[in-house]
């Protein structure tokens, strides 16, 4: 797992590549669904990060657009039924608004103040001409790292690392601890600073990176001569790399300057209450429930969760001019970010400490963003709308299909009508008993698709659909040459929310079932 310390490269999604400018694509409408508009830009982004199996060969763009239209139709009907006012969607919208407010504040205070000059870009490209090959070893503490360093100094890297690998339960090859050619882009700045003057075949002293200690040997250094074309061809990429590096640095400075005057203090007793409850939540294996919900539902049999429940109003955090209670913290706490297991107490402690810091930080950032009325910004309103549309569609689809239940008689009827879909390894004629679960699965999706197809057909009368086929054909998109199941997903920051809502994979389940069988 430590290999990512070296090979962490920044994944950049350069969403250029369209024959028209971004602003033009946003103004060009590829489809109307009643008064609802699907812009060429919306289609392009949705398509490029959408599921490959939703793109029918030969009519990839049209088939994908039709799924977007189907969702838009259901969404429009959902608004008519006021599903957007449901408690569930309102709760999602509130959580997303808070997230977007934090993003907007960072945009104003960090992103918008970053200026990457042409000189910096050229210098970065020039630096990339130097490449290193490295060998390394990682230890979790300084004492062990120093012992390994001393052994390597005496006996050489290969001899020591082979011996260490032989003593491990999980066998690895020495090759697993050697890199390909790396440039400055691929190496964390703090590590690069330590090894930039390291001679070939010399061993570095243990270097602390992300709470572990790494020993480095440079095995090769090479340098290429760059042409004018190299500078022109990579200029945009390196501008993005420099931007994201500067963004990380400036974000840290902004957070420090913003938070230090608040004089935030976390109370030890209340921290321990939450930590013990988290450990119990993990031990009881009830993590499908959010931590906050588990606390609310706790009874006497869940002693630590119940104890926390009875101390909701205790102050967890004090700061200059105010306090945050345990209840306040739980309201903004994303327990899915706690990945530690119940017995990993140190990791659990560190993750909780980090989440408290993030939650408290976001509390102040949201407060500041609202004071600046950033909730009224066009970016926030637009992103709220596209996600609200998606949630309304999902809610209506659930209402139409959740009551569907398939019994054996219905599954048998489906199986007999679609026997050609089911193949046995021996080539013998398939029997219902062999494929009863498959048949129930396929019959369920066949039924729900028919329900939705009928609903969509009726909705087209209320919300007429118009497609600009000529414009659709002109939208430049990137398609994978790999398997139709190969997909690329784009997520926002370090979270689990996708950067943009894409077409629901549900639409591909029926065909997927047929192909898999």
Task: Describe what this molecule looks like in 3D.
This protein has 517 residues and is mainly alpha-helical. 53% of the residues lie in helices and 9% in strands. It contains 20 helices and 9 strands. The strands form 3 sheets. A 3-stranded antiparallel sheet has the order 2-1-9. Strands 3-5-4 form a 3-stranded antiparallel sheet. A 3-stranded antiparallel sheet has the order 6-7-8. A hairpin with a 2-residue loop joins β4 and β5. α4 packs across α16, α7 packs across α8 and α11 crosses α15. It is globular and about 75 Å long. The two termini are 36 Å apart.
Major sheet = 3 strands, antiparallel
Q: Which range does the strand content fall in?
A: 5-15%
Fraction in helix: 40-55%
The N- and C-terminal alpha carbons lie at a distance of 36 Å
Overall outline = globular
How many helix segments?
Answer: 20
Average predicted confidence as pLDDT: 87
Secondary-structure element pattern, one letter each: HHEEHHHHEHHHEEHEHHHEEHHHHHEHH
Oligomerization: single chain
Structural class: mainly alpha
- Please count the beta strands (DSSP E, at least 2 residues each): 9
Radius of gyration (Å): 28 Å
Low-confidence stretches: 1-20, 512-517
Major sheet: arrangement of strands: 2-1-9
């Amino acid at each position: 797992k430590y290999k990512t310390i070296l090979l962490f490269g920044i994944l950049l999604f350069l969403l250029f590549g369209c024959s028209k400018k971004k602003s033009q694509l946003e103004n060009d409408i590829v489809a109307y669904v009643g008064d609802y508009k699907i812009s060429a830009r919306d289609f392009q982004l949705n398509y490029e990060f959408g599921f490959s199996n939703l793109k029918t060969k030969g009519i990839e763009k049209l088939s994908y657009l039709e799924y977007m239209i189907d969702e838009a139709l259901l969404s429009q009907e959902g608004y008519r039924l006021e599903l957007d006012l449901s408690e569930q969607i309102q709760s999602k919208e509130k959580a997303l608004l808070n997230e977007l407010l934090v993003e907007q504040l960072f945009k104003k205070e960090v992103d918008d103040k970053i200026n990457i000059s042409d000189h910096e870009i050229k210098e970065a490209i020039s630096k990339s001409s130097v490449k290193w090959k490295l060998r390394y070893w990682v230890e979790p503490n300084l004492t062990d790292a120093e012992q390994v360093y001393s052994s390597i100094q005496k006996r050489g890297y290969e001899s020591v690392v082979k011996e260490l690998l032989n003593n491990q339960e999980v066998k690895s090859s020495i090759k697993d601890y050697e890199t390909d050619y790396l440039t400055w882009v691929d190496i964390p700045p703090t590590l690069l600073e330590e090894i930039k003057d390291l001679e070939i075949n010399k061993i570095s002293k243990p270097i602390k990176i992300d709470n572990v200690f790494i020993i480095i040997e440079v095995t090769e250094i090479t340098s290429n001569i760059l042409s004018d074309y190299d500078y022109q061809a990579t200029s945009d990429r390196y501008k993005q790399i420099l931007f994201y590096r500067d963004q990380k640095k400036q974000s840290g400075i902004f957070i420090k300057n913003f938070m230090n005057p608040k004089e935030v203090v976390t109370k030890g007793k209340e921290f321990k209450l939450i930590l013990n409850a988290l450990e119990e939540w993990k031990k009881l294996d009830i993590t499908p429930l959010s931590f906050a919900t588990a606390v609310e539902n706790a009874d006497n049999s869940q002693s630590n969760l119940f104890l926390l429940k009875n101390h909701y109003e205790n102050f967890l955090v004090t700061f200059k001019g105010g306090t945050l209670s345990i209840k306040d913290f739980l309201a903004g706490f994303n327990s899915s970010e706690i990945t530690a297991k119940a017995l990993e107490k140190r990791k659990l402690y560190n993750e909780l400490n980090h989440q408290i810091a993030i939650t408290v930080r976001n509390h102040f950032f949201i407060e500041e963003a609202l004071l600046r009325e950033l909730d009224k910004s066009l970016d926030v309103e637009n992103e709220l709308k596209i996600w609200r549309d998606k949630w309304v569609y999902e809610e209506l689809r659930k209402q139409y299909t959740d009551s569907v239940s398939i019994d054996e008689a219905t599954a048998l009827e489906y199986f007999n009508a679609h026997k050609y879909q089911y193949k046995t390894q021996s080539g013998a004629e398939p029997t219902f008993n062999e494929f009863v679960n498959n048949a129930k699965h396929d019959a369920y999706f066949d039924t729900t698709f028919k329900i939705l197809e009928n609903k969509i057909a009726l909705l087209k009368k209320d919300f007429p659909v118009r497609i600009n086929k000529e414009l659709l054909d002109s939208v430049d998109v990137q398609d994978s040459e790999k398997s139709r199941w190969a997909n690329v997903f784009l997520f926002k920051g370090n979270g689990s929310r996708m950067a943009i809502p894409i077409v629901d994979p549900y639409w591909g389940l029926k065909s997927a079932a047929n192909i898999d069988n």
